[in-house]
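Reminder to self: tokens first, then the designed residues, so the page reads top to bottom the way the pipeline ran.
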């Protein structure tokens, strides 16, 4: 079992200590299922990358913006859960943020 409030605090602190303003930890690795907690300080981002076979993003703290390679933006705030677009995208924290990324990888 994972204590999400504790993980949120821990990874925000780690993100502030990181020169890139981020921290990530794989929580679940079960066959094709991956769940990762990612913390970003305000303004920090994950560079553009490919989308997994299927994925969702749940904001546990703060807010983020998912921007696809074609410029489409999706703002996701505290408590919201959104599917990740099936195209190259980046992720930027609009506030200090912690997200739970759930991804299904191809096997």
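Designed residues (107 positions):
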């Amino acid at each position: 079992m994972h204590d999400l409030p504790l993980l949120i605090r821990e990874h925000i602190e780690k993100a502030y200590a990181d020169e890139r303003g981020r921290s990530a930890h794989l929580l679940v690795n079960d066959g094709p299922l991956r769940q990762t907690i990612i913390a970003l300080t305000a303004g920090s981002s994950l560079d553009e990358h490919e989308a997994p076979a299927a994925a969702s993003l749940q904001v546990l703290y703060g807010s983020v913006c998912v921007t696809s390679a074609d410029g489409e933006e999706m703002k996701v705030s505290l408590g919201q859960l959104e599917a990740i677009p099936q195209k190259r995208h980046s992720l930027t924290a609009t506030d200090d943020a912690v997200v739970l990324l759930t991804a299904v990888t191809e096997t």
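The two ends are 25 Å apart (CA to CA).
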